[in-house]
Amino acid sequence: MEVKEGMDSTRTGSDRTRRFLRLATLALLALLLVPVTTSAETLQQVLKRRGLSQQDVLAAAKTYVPTGKRDEYVAFASGGQSGMVIVYGIPSMRILKYIAVFNPEPWQAYGFDEESKAVLNQGRINGKDITWGDTHHPAISETAGDYDGQFLFINDKANPRLAVIDLHDFETKQIVVSPVFQSEHGGAFVSENTEYVMEAVQYPAPLGGEYSPLERFNEDYRGGVTYWKFNREIGRLEPKNSFSMELPPYSQDLSDFGKLASSGWSFTNSFCSERYVGGIERGRPPFEAGCSAKDTDYLHVINWRKAAQVAAQPGKTKLINGHKVIMMDTAIQEGLVYLIPEPKSPHGVDVTPDGDYIVISGKLDSHTYVYSWKKIQAAMAAKNFEGKDPYGIPIIGLQTALHTQVPLGLGPLHTQYDSKKGIAYTSLYVDSMVARWDYINGKLLDRLPIHYNIGHLMTMHGDTVKPRGKYLVSLNKLAIDRFQPVGPLHPQNHQLIDIAGDNMQLLYDMPLPLGEPHYTVAIDATLLKPAVRYKVGTNTRTGEISPHKTRAGEERIERDGNKVSVHGTLIRSHITPEIIEVDEGDEVTIHLTNLERAQDQTHGFTVSKYNVNGSWEPGKTATVKFTADTPGVFPFYCTEFCSALHLEMQGYVLVKPKGYKAKVGALMPKDQYTQADYEKQVKACNETQTVIDSVVGFITERNYKDFPPVVALVEDATEQLGYADGPKQKAAEEAAAGNYHSATLWAGQWWQYQVKAADIGLRAKTYLEQHGAKKVQ
Amino acid sequence: MEVKEGMDSTRTGSDRTRRFLRLATLALLALLLVPVTTSAETLQQVLKRRGLSQQDVLAAAKTYVPTGKRDEYVAFASGGQSGMVIVYGIPSMRILKYIAVFNPEPWQAYGFDEESKAVLNQGRINGKDITWGDTHHPAISETAGDYDGQFLFINDKANPRLAVIDLHDFETKQIVVSPVFQSEHGGAFVSENTEYVMEAVQYPAPLGGEYSPLERFNEDYRGGVTYWKFNREIGRLEPKNSFSMELPPYSQDLSDFGKLASSGWSFTNSFCSERYVGGIERGRPPFEAGCSAKDTDYLHVINWRKAAQVAAQPGKTKLINGHKVIMMDTAIQEGLVYLIPEPKSPHGVDVTPDGDYIVISGKLDSHTYVYSWKKIQAAMAAKNFEGKDPYGIPIIGLQTALHTQVPLGLGPLHTQYDSKKGIAYTSLYVDSMVARWDYINGKLLDRLPIHYNIGHLMTMHGDTVKPRGKYLVSLNKLAIDRFQPVGPLHPQNHQLIDIAGDNMQLLYDMPLPLGEPHYTVAIDATLLKPAVRYKVGTNTRTGEISPHKTRAGEERIERDGNKVSVHGTLIRSHITPEIIEVDEGDEVTIHLTNLERAQDQTHGFTVSKYNVNGSWEPGKTATVKFTADTPGVFPFYCTEFCSALHLEMQGYVLVKPKGYKAKVGALMPKDQYTQADYEKQVKACNETQTVIDSVVGFITERNYKDFPPVVALVEDATEQLGYADGPKQKAAEEAAAGNYHSATLWAGQWWQYQVKAADIGLRAKTYLEQHGAKKVQ
């Protein structure tokens, strides 16, 4: 864009003017005053028309990510009752993916193909399918206390389970069911090198699932924590190398692993240490009254590294449902567990980046407590306890362990850390605010109102040894009036806050359109290295090559009694085979392999009315099954708009009824197309080839090899064009034999491959034009 | 913000300078150069740091919607294989809601509570649950040809079905199964006053689901269209008043209703009018080759208004599966259907806002065809036909009907209209572009590259009699490199384009994180009037008051043999009842009513390990069921973070095993709390009351009644505080009787209600502070 001539005259103004109006400014001034195209608006006009303030346009500029550019951070939010994980970019706050974890989800075909059903089936409980989950606390795998971007762990609070997502392909790979708890909350949290993934119970119940009446709450109901062993090599949790620790029935809640100074330890808080049992319907005050009667609850301080050693010793654990549990007496004897009073009804327990302090807020206490790990260690070493709890666990006095206590506001809940030493952010639920404060000197620095009722909050790498600062996300529990209304069930609101400056600044309101996130973690986007395709024939849920991998030319339909198995392939724009004939009552199994190598060339597959649905990313092999119990004609097709001829990527399953008597009929005559039709089609092919040649010329005359996306497109186009040779040759052979009908059709298929190649080539050409590719010799 | 003094000196510059630097500009200059807070960045610094161009900041300013402000338009996108509808705001492109339609979805509890299961069960086919759908074409209900914002219709292509969503609460209310088709595509489309909702078949098959071999394709396989009668009063489709028309096996595709000039008619296109049957595995060229061999396919022109009259006459229809079908012979005899050649492999058929023209693009023809309704009418009146198709349907000659033919580019697909007369936008799939053109004068005006491979496109009210112009959304089928990678399965990309000026300008790339949208419709946001609560006790799926509506005090647990039924309530922060004791094998039914009236106060409910999950918006009554086949202790809790004491909104289902022998035990002693505890709690209550009084004082001293959201908050706070009276009184009574334990707990419950009231009051106070409320006398 040119700067208008008139602007130069400002250079004749005073010195003070000159100071402001340097060349760089001129370009921006031009932006304000000169429309980009003749009739377009200036920025000034846009602000006026849209009623935007100066603060708004700054926020817009801080969050807008132009086409093709990338976000700086990638966030993983739990999806609450949706059972999913939500992936979004920061600062654009655009949602990039919902990953189905505990719920069947048809777009990803999760729980639809046999391979993913096998993952969901790992999560069955008491013989029942559990078709949802209450995901709460995602955790990214860590190396040396910082996120490494390899795996994501997520819990199900309602049906105590943990799942593993591989960030290589963003798919759920494993679900484990807690062998001892009836519900959980405080998971997932990972140790500094992802040796263990931790989950803590929520509501006390007899360990292992036994029945016991509420009258035996104190005797038989228990809490606990589980340390799931993670095997990074295979990317799976190992139940046989995992263990739990029995704890009092205190409604254990969130946890955190120690780091650096506090390495080897973990911290778990609790609420309702009153052990109150409600019963409004019986005339007793409700749980909410009795569970908040005392001023403090208990923080559990656990030596997990030593506990792992104890769990490995014979006779030190009790096997419950085949799972090792360190019972309380052993834990106390071995010095594995201590209690410290903590503020009333706490939620987050958050170890500082250096591991020196543990910060805890109680939602019904307006102070946030900072505990000193040094003081806690000293108390444990000196056996300086103020007493024991009813189960014999030593209690370290609050004042003995406390570093400081800071009044931040009402309903403090969760704390995250800044890249700046000593700076923390705490959510204030009742106040609907975020507090920025100094946890070393115990000083409140700033507060920012949010909308509304913040639960957790999150800074970039904010719970690691190396927080990145920059952005904070406020996970608000109520949106109320923030967005265009969409009925009584509201989206949630995640607010992006700029924390780079001295004051916090609200940047963006993001509605969450599905699910209720509880906690979120965000990783530097450059640490994620996901793949775009699989090795051909991969069972993506196990990572192994499927025995049903099928290459082009290997497609087949086989029958064994009433079992029909199909090995087929998917490629732009046909499914092989195209006709599947079975008999009423047959059990039909269809194994499909996507032969594509090009990025984003996913194909889908469905057989109508048979609840058959699948999604095949490039290279994937997966299996769908149905029993052909209803006779009739059932179209199948590709459910992904994959190419111009996508609608023609179709076929039929024919289910012949028992006792069907054949009627006479014939397909369209084989002499429909004549020599003239054939020649017309060949002419079209030759003309299309001219277009392709010109596009190829354009591309190869430029430095296209400097643009990796274009190199990928050229590979794809070359492959598609390569496929054209077969039909082209068949067409010529049929024409030579005088079979012009068949020749015309094969020439048509030759043309189809040309169209696909042209489509890809044109995308490559546009890319080069838009990215300033240069002509080369 | 203040303008720096230095700026004024520019006024001493030349006249030309003065022309540019008027006062309004100064404020903006200040924005560029002066940070908003001391240490914050200027806009100029932000642009430099983030590498944004002038075009980028303009686009950011055109799309950014600040906190609490609303989007101008609301879009409803189909979700493809996800089975859902996606709701998003324009221009912010923020997704506001996923509405589950054909798939069970746990966040909304769709398919989890009995009431919504009843809706999903309407969509069962051949005795089978269909747990997904392939949603393609949403349609908003219309009045006089323009969107009225009352209902949304959406189809399932795979398992031919249609669903009705009520935009009063954005919930799916009805699913109907096609009684005649095996798959469909061309739905939903609505007539000008939503008399009928139309769907057309996709892949031909014998009507009604009979088996017939592919060798009888020409004789037995058929296409067709269905006109579903809509009853706006009850908001439901009426199968008994609906009818279909048999059509040739031409793979009918999309449709459109005529409007104004062409009122009473509908238009349906087709592909594979070759009636080709593929079979690669049998040595035949694939469908994609044989289905694109001819240069043209057929547009079906149907007189639906007359057809409705014919369908009502005795003897004029054939009943197939109880559904009226006008067979082809009757349709031809009655002059209900005509064919016109149309460009090869078309997708969209789009009637212009005045109804005068019909625009069709064939993906394998680089021309877009504009048909003249006047010419078509004249040909029909004069019986000016060029022949008949093999089934006897009269064919109007292409040149007879054509207004003009415009070469727009490669792979043209779908057309939408501008508010400016005669201006249309057409997607170009192969070219990856949008074309702006003049359909009256047949002139291409502008083309804009998109990323990548656009399918449908959409302008605001772009298929109505009154398009609004302003924005266009390009629904791209491939995203490839646009976003931070998230594995082999990519999000889709919807690109927002500014069409207000003379040139199209790309504004925003929106990733679609779940599902594959095919078509989208967008309505002026002010035309939507969704509710925020239900009448207490509403079965939201039927709109009727549930027989299981339960008010406070009516909660009860009843037993009839092995059937246990619970009538309970949900309110911040307890579930009544809190303890549910049943025996192993009992069938347990839990009816819950959310007593809340406050906006966004949804509660959830789950019983752990029993796959029980539900969502209760304010006023809703819904039912969950399970068989207590596994003995044990199963916590239940509210799954929505609804209040500070959300975690304490809990209870237990106890399933007593057969033959259980009681053990001795007792809850916590009833003398835990003393007079001192009681007095401490009362002191806390009194202190909290002081806080509340000061907040109340702040609010009532201001013109809070001018702020409807604050009025709602005050009502909610007053209600919560009202609840405090009961426990307060109980506490006093118990204290008077010397029962200090019980008195302390009840005083605690009094305090819980105070905390909720304070939370709401503080939100109201902040709102007034942020919105410049004034002190009143």
3D architecture notes:
2 copies of one chain form a homodimer. Chain A is α+β, with helices and mostly antiparallel strands. In chain A, 21% of the residues lie in helices and 34% in strands. In chain A, the strands form 11 sheets. In chain A, strands 8-9-10-11-16-15 form a 6-stranded mixed β-sheet. In chain A, strands 35, 36, 37, 39 and 42 form a 5-stranded mixed β-sheet that branches. In chain A, strand 15 (318-320) and strand 16 form a beta hairpin. In chain A, helix 12 packs parallel to helix 14 (740-770) and helix 13 (708-736) packs antiparallel against helix 14. The first copy, chain A, starts with 14 loop residues before the first helix and ends in a 7-residue tail after the last helix. At the A-B interface, helix 1, helix 2, helix 3, helix 4 and strand 2 of A face helix 1, helix 2, helix 3, helix 4 and strand 2 of B.
